[in-house]
């Protein structure tokens, strides 16, 4: 088990290095000068002398190889650099916003698992019956509606028509826990709908596959009650693929919550990244992409380890 974890950690470290290098190269190959963008905010043409001085101060006049070496050196120290716009440490800016995005993703994932796994098992246990067909139709509908459309509908129905929930905003948990959770509910639900549909379908498929295995028939032949068979012999063995898909979807949600955060005015990473891209703030864009990619890789590492716990055959492969 330890050898498997070390192997996966080594692969994750190499992937993070490759992502850091790719982000740096892509940003510096894309046409455009961040200095001109910053100095042309008022629509005027920047003074060449001022532009040259700012370019020197930001280190953009150095050779690309030297900038890359400095970039890797800072990363090794955990330094993501300073923003071109406000000269604040990028890590500080990300640390203020990332927990809010992670909270949104975490809440959506918990809701999806609480709904998706039981309904997936229910659909598998009633294969071909009415409840299975209803759930199949519902999941198809949930997957076909974009998240930002769901978010807009939620605001229209629950905030404007029924007036039972606020349209959006953010209040720190420490200031008012009840208000914070109320404001979190609608965006988390909007994100959770699509993931719930995926989990329902995956759970149904894996449970149906496990129900046909010999050990399930043996457990029933021994006289075990059906709930115990489902709990100990079916659901546990069916959770591996569900866990993998959920982990991958959580990684995708790191970049897929932008519109939801915008619609509900949730101050996560979306607005920060949009501002950085608009102003070609290299350190901020590099920092956001690198942190997001690192979290995605680490999340998949955790999923791989948990999957190996559920299925020992994975460790031997």
Question: Top keywords for this entry?
Answer:
MetI-like fold; BPD_transp_1_N; 0% strand; Peptide/nickel transport system permease protein; transmembrane helix; MetI-like; transport
Helix-and-strand structural type:
mainly alpha
Fraction in helix: over 70%
Terminal Cα span = 12 Å
CATH first level of one domain: Mainly Alpha
Strand content: under 5%
Radius of gyration: 24 Å
Q: Element order, helices and strands?
A: HHHHHHHHHHHHHH
Biggest β-sheet description? none
**CATH architecture descriptor text of one domain:** Orthogonal Bundle
Calculate the mean pLDDT score and round it: 82
Kindly state the number of beta strands. Answer: 0
Number of helices: 14
Shape type:
globular
Low-confidence stretches: none
CATH superfamily of one domain: MetI-like
Structure in words:
This protein is an all-alpha fold. The chain has a domain of 183 residues: MetI-like fold (Orthogonal Bundle), CATH 1.10.3720.10. Helix 5 runs antiparallel to helix 10 and helix 9 runs antiparallel to helix 10. It is globular, with a radius of gyration of 24 Å. It is built from 14 helices and no strands.
Give the structure's gist in a few sentences.
The chain is mainly α. It contains 14 helices and no strands. Helix 6 crosses helix 8 and helix 10 runs antiparallel to helix 13.
Question: What topology emerges from the helices and strands here?
Answer:
Layout: H1 2-29, H2 34-39, H3 48-57, H4 64-76, H5 90-125, H6 130-144, H7 147-161, H8 177-211, H9 214-221, H10 226-256, H11 258-263, H12 269-278, H13 282-310, H14 313-316
Helix pairs in contact: 1-4, 1-13, 5-6, 5-8, 5-10, 6-8, 7-8, 8-10, 9-10, 10-13, 12-13
């Amino acid at each position: 088990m330890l050898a498997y974890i070390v192997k996966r950690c080594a692969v994750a470290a190499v992937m993070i290095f490759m992502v850091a290098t790719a982000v740096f190269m892509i940003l510096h190959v894309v046409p455009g000068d961040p200095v001109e963008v910053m100095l042309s905010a008022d629509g005027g043409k920047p003074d060449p002398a001022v532009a040259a001085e700012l370019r020197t101060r930001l280190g953009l006049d150095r050779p690309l190889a030297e900038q890359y070496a400095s970039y890797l050196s800072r990363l090794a120290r955990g330094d993501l650099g300073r923003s071109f716009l406000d000269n604040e440490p990028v890590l500080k800016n990300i640390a203020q916003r990332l927990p809010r995005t992670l909270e949104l993703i975490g809440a959506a994932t918990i809701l999806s698992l609480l709904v998706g796994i039981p309904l997936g098992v229910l659909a598998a246990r009633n294969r071909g019956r009415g409840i299975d067909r209803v759930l199949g139709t519902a999941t198809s509908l949930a997957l076909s509606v974009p998240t930002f459309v769901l978010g807009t509908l939620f605001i229209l129905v629950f905030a404007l028509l029924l007036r039972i929930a606020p349209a959006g905003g953010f209040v720190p948990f420490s200031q008012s826990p009840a208000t914070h959770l109320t404001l979190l509910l609608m965006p988390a639900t909007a994100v959770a709908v699509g993931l719930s549909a995926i989990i329902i379908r995956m759970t149904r498929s894996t449970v149906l596959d496990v129900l046909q295995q010999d050990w399930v028939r043996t457990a029933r032949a021994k006289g075990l009650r059906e709930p115990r068979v489902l709990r100990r012999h079916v659901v546990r063995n069916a959770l591996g693929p569900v866990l993998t898909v959920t982990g991958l979807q959580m990684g995708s949600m790191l970049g897929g919550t932008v519109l939801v955060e915008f619609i509900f005015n949730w101050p996560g990473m979306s607005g920060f990244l949009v501002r950085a891209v608009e102003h070609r703030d290299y350190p901020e864009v590099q920092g956001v992409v690198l942190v997001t990619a690192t979290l995605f890789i680490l999340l998949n590492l955790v999923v791989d380890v948990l999957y190996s716990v559920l299925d020992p055959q994975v460790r031997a492969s």
